[in-house]
Design goal:
Blueprint: E1 2-6, H1 10-14, H2 20-27, E2 32-36, E3 50-52, E4 60-62, H3 64-76, E5 84-95, H4 98-104, E6 109-113, E7 119-120, H5 122-128, E8 131-134, H6 144-155, H7 164-174, E9 188-189, E10 192-193, H8 196-199, H9 203-221, H10 223-230
Parallel strand pairs: 1-2, 1-6, 4-7, 5-6, 5-8
Antiparallel strand pairs: 3-4, 9-10
This protein binds 4-amino-N-(4-chlorobenzyl)-1,2,5-oxadiazole-3-carboxamide (4FM).
The site of 4-amino-N-(4-chlorobenzyl)-1,2,5-oxadiazole-3-carboxamide has 18 residues, from strand 5 and strand 7.
Length: 244
């Protein structure tokens, strides 16, 4: 899977590929990436990528030209794959969940557009975007952090990116429950004890405890997930279950 990220801060976005699981995925050739800076495709000597908004509100808008040029050049370099999706990261997009991440992971190439300023000229979105995704109901200073979140969440669904040990956690989310609490040594720390059952060696009892903890946490913290779980549907947005 190749991630193409269109951003005016390529060195910032590159960090997501340089640490931990993603770094190993890149080294193992499971993931590759290409950073595209629209500023390299500007026509004027000031390398302008933004201009004032039509309609007379304050705030700048990212211009069509540099992003259209960037796409043209990718096309000319034969860098665009058959199975690709172009995604604009924006608070007005559909809310990211594990199902969307899993679905996007099935593409050979994802082109992520990270905007800055007050917005991107709508003609860029209309021409190129297959999808608009939001990582949550808050406003960031730009799409870069959202693109990085999306890359990380998607990469975990690419086969062999996450090792066996960690994949268990992911499976537990797809059962529709939040994860149970975790403990490691020592058994007693500053007067705080690890729950007795975890030291018992009784794996049936340990599983029962973890299940109870996961259910209690989900019920209290995420009644929406709990409702879906007890109605026998593990689905995040109603695609498999037909919704609520
Ligand atoms: C996006 C700022 C585009 C400027 C943003 C432009 C966001 C989110 C977000 C900020 N993206 N989920 N929440 N983006 O806040 O995805 Cl031009």
């Amino acid at each position: 899977m190749e991630f193409v990220i269109i951003t005016i801060f390529p060195e910032f976005v590159e960090q997501v590929f340089k640490w931990g699981i993603l770094r190993r995925a890149v080294e193992a050739g499971k993931v590759s990436y290409r950073l595209v800076d629209p500023r390299e495709f500007t026509a004027d000597r000031h390398k302008s990528i933004d201009d004032v908004a039509y309609g007379g509100r304050p705030g700048m808008v990212m211009m069509c030209e540099p992003i259209f040029k960037a796409m043209e050049v990718l096309e000319a370099q034969d860098a665009l794959k058959e199975s690709r999706r172009f995604i604009h990261l924006t608070p007005t997009g559909r809310l990211l969940n594990w199902e969307i991440a899993e679905d996007l992971a099935s593409n050979d190439q994802l082109i992520l557009l990270a905007g800055r300023y007050e917005g991107i000229d709508q003609r860029v979105i209309d021409t190129f975007a297959d999808d608009e995704v939001s990582i949550g109901d808050y406003v960031l200073s730009g799409g870069e952090l959202a693109a990085m979140v999306l890359v990380d969440a998607i990469a975990r669904f690419i086969p062999e990116v996450v090792g066996n040990e960690q994949s268990v956690t992911q499976d537990s989310f797809s059962t529709g429950l939040l994860d149970h609490p975790h403990y490691t040594r020592p058994a007693s720390f500053n007067g705080m004890e690890v729950p007795e059952v975890l030291l018992s060696g009784n794996h049936a009892e340990i599983e029962k405890w973890r299940r109870q903890q996961a259910e209690q946490l989900t019920r209290l913290r995420r009644p929406d997930l709990w409702e879906r779980h007890i109605s026998g549907k593990s689905d995040g947005n109603g695609k498999r279950s037909g919704g609520k």
